[in-house]
Amino acid sequence: MVAPRRAAVIGCGRMGAFTSAGVRAHAPACWFPLAHAEAVVAHPGLDLVAVADMDAEAARRAAAAYGAARWFTDPLALLEEVRPELLCLATRTPGRAALIEAAIEAGVRALHVEKPLCNSVAELAALDALFARPDVHVTWGAIRRLLPPYRAALAESASGQHGRLLEVSVHMGAGRLFWTHPHSLDLLLFAAGERDVVAVSALLDGVETAPGEPLRILSDPGVAAAAMQFADGLVGRITRQPGCDLVLAGETGAVAVEADGHRLTRLSTAEGEGYPAWRPLPLSAEAAPVGTLAALLELTACLDGDVERCAANARWKRDILMAQRLLFAAVESNRRGGAAVPPDEVPAKLVIEAITAGRPA
Question: Do 346 and 213 sit in the same domain of this protein?
């Protein structure tokens, strides 16, 4: 019998250990288990050996709730003493890039990391080199691409029944750049597949810079509008329309995931009708790994050497890095009055602290 792999969770708040009551009450079933620790204990091949949080009471509470043998207030001590094979990282963004680097140096080869990845272009450059390693496998908290409604929508779009894919839209209401839109960007890149990003244009509001430092953004700006151009003419859009929806629009119709996965709908023209109309589609009733558990299963499959899953994770790592780069490019586009900015034209000294009400994203 194969012994379970050692897993640990750093960060014992609502994403690391205790899903908020509001999310539990309103999110579709496919989102669960969502908290990292909950997903670890649901995975038959993982053993939650330790948790860490700077707040000792939070760490102690999570360890008791999930049966972890040890808890820490120093994440570096956890990495040194426990040497987990798989790490879940649910801290706030400042210091996250350094923890990823420390974990890989400590021998961790599978990481599920909350979003966004980092606060600066310089940190992203260091992560680029680490993610390029084929023996390092990474997923992140923008997990919609793993959930059945989104996969069903992409499969329908890819089938060609609506013609060539022309536009992908994500509606996330009045979301903030770092807090909300890693989800939006990950969905756009997931829908775009192998297409290269040509440029991003964005208009932001609430941009606050440090005095005398125009490349240090203190706030987490709101996104008034954003668009991505892909190499083959595909356009991706982020709007302020409420609803948490994804729309994949083709030449003759469209498919949409609405309300975070509560509904799947199709825009098509029935025989005898002059105009297309939205109609409900059935949601899959198949029992499949969902929520954060799906990400952890991908990571353990990679650790086991599953070639197909390693290839899929390599693509996702590429998208994670690009999504982070596009967050920075959105700020640079706004600095240029909304002009289209290629992802590789972001200033190397750009920093986004992303603070709202005194707390960073």
Answer: yes
Phi, psi of 138 (to 5 degrees): -135, 135
Site of tokens 């509470």: 61
Residue 75, domain CATH: 3.40.50.720
In a domain, residue 193? The reply is yes
CA atoms within 13 A on the CB side of 115: 26
Give the domain range for residue 93. 5-143+290-310
Ranges under pLDDT 70 in the chain:
1, 285-287
Residue with tokens 């290629």: 342
- Does some domain include residue 315? no
Which pLDDT belongs to residue 284?
A: 77
Task: Give the bridge partners for 280, in sequence order.
Answer: 265
Residues 6+ positions from 241 with CB-CB distance below 8 Å:
171, 173
* 50 lies in the same domain as 86: yes
Instruction: Supply the pLDDT for residue 286.
Output: 63
- pTM beyond 0.90: yes
pLDDT tens, residue by residue, 138-171:
999 999 999 999 999 999 999 999 999 999 999 9
